[in-house]
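Consider a typical record:
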Amino acid sequence: MFHLPEARAGLEAYFSLYRYMPAQDQPVLRATELFAHRQVAAWMTSLPFLWTVAPPHAPADVRARIGVALPPGPALIGGSNLVIWQHSRHGQAALELVRFLVSPPAQKEYCQHIGVLPVRLDVLNQPPYSTDPHLQGYVRAMQHGRPFPPIRMAGMLEDRLATAWGQISADVIAQPDRDLDSLISSRLEPLARRLEMALNASG
C-alpha cells in the first residue's frame, strides 16, 4: 500500500519539510548534530537518538531546553524481538535466559544502558520512566500506540523501503525544485512491482 495515492500524499508532506532544513551536504545524516547545536528547532526521532543529545545525566539546563511532543494519531509501537530456536540441547538453560532477560532488574538496567524502553509495564511505572518528563512522553506513546501485525517477508520489505527512502531523500536534496509526487512515484512504483512479484512468488 506504500505506493498508493494516500500513502504518497503523506510521504510528499514529509519530504516537503526538507525545504526548512539548513543547507548542508548531508542534512538527514547530520540531524542529531544539527539539533544538538540548536541549528534546527524540531527533530522527529526515537528514544535512543534523543538520549544522545539529552541523556539522563546531561546538565539540567540542557535537558530543560528540550521538550518531547507526540505526533498526531496513535504512535507505532515496535522494537526488538527475542528469537529462540524451536529445539535446544539446553532447554532449561534457554528458559532461564529468557526469564532473566525479561525480569524487572534486567529490563531496567539493560534498557537504560542502551537507551530504549523496557517491555514491562511494572518497570515503566518506576523511575526514571515515571518521573523524567522526556521519558514520560515516550511512555504515553507506548500506552496509546499500536503495533503492526506480523507481515510476511517483513525483513526484506523493510530493507527495500529503507533503501528507497534514502534514495528519495538524496533526490529531494539534489533536485529541490522537482515535483515531489513524480519524484516519489519514480522510486516507489517500480519497487512496488518488484515486491509484489516477490511476495506472489513466495506463496
